[in-house]
Design brief:
Elements: H1 5-16, H2 22-29, H3 33-45, E1 65-73, H4 78-88, E2 94-99, E3 106-112, H5 115-124, E4 132-139
Antiparallel strand pairs: 1-3, 1-4, 2-3
Helix pairs in contact: 2-3
Length: about 150
């Protein structure tokens, strides 16, 4: 989708702080409050803006231990893939799950309190899912970049 300069600036402003009021945005964009409101509604209708959320500091909520778990299924049948995907989305510890190419089938981003909680998650939840052939865990040492902002 092509955006004009105002839509691009509006999306940039919203990505950096979605709590801004339409009045605050109108002052930054030199538009009326109504015009800003209508542009936001249009972007929502067209699916450009999916939802607005609050981002939590994982260190302050006891979820600072970040693990990237590479997972391989036993077979690549449609049934195995569908069943795994239906089950993995139910696991609250899994924040992101990507079906990928390469040596592994999936990469999961898992956030828990510590190594003990991760071990418990692996033993009681993840490895109890059917059709998992193998897993490989990589632990985050430090965060270099973490953004939700797309450059348009």
């Amino acid at each position: 989708m092509n955006f004009d300069a105002i839509d691009t600036k509006l999306l940039e402003l919203l990505q950096n702080d979605a709590k801004q009021t339409t009045k605050q945005l109108s002052l930054k964009l030199n538009l009326s409050v109504t015009a800003v409101y209508e542009r936001i509604k249009k972007l929502e209708r067209e699916g450009v803006i999916e939802k607005q959320v609050v981002l939590l500091n994982r260190n302050k909520i006891g979820k600072a231990f970040v693990v990237f778990c590479h997972l391989k299924l036993m077979q690549h049948t449609k049934e195995f893939i569908s069943q795994f995907e239906r089950e993995v989305v139910k696991l609250n510890e899994v924040l992101e799950c990507f079906h990928v190419s390469g040596d592994y089938d999936y990469i999961l981003k898992i956030c828990v309190e510590n190594m003990e909680e991760y071990r418990e998650f692996m033993v009681t939840k993840l490895t109890t899912l059917q059709h998992i052939g193998s897993t490989h865990s990589t632990f985050m040492i430090g965060e270099v970049k973490n953004t939700t902002v797309y450059t348009l």
